[in-house]
Automatic annotation (TrEMBL):
Membrane-spanning segments: none
Keyword Calcium: no
Keywords in alphabetical order: 3Fe-4S, Electron transport, Iron, Iron-sulfur, Metal-binding, Transport
Cofactor: [3Fe-4S] cluster
Entry-linked Gene3D superfamilies: 3.30.70.20
Superkingdom of origin organism: Bacteria
Chain ranges of the 4Fe-4S ferredoxin-type domain: 3-31
Protein name per its UniProtKB record: Ferredoxin
Matches recorded under InterPro entries: 3Fe4S_ferredoxin (IPR001080), 4Fe4S_Fe-S-bd (IPR017896), Fe-S_cluster_ET (IPR051269)
KW Nuclease (keyword) present: no
Function, as annotated: Ferredoxins are iron-sulfur proteins that transfer electrons in a wide variety of metabolic reactions.
Length: 71
């Protein structure tokens, strides 16, 4: 099983929180974050990164269902 991770480049403000928490998944590219690999193994830290995004620009999906950020 894997999770799909997406960053909305139009919403991202480039705070770098995601890249600081999970540099193997996220990187800052200019003023916005991007995903290094679109599919990752399930990891609580990926959800933590989505939760910590101040712009709510990260979406984590499992089998097409949004699981992050968490409410």
């Amino acid at each position: 099983m894997s999770w799909k991770v997406e960053v909305d480049g139009n919403t991202c403000i480039g705070s770098g929180m995601c890249a600081a928490l999970m540099p193997e998944v996220f990187e800052l590219e200019g003023a916005t974050a991007t995903v290094v690999e679109g599919e990752v193994s399930p990891d609580e830290m990926v959800l933590d990164a989505a939760d910590s995004c101040p712009a709510m620009a990260i979406e984590v999906l499992e089998k097409g269902e949004v699981i992050g950020p968490r409410p």
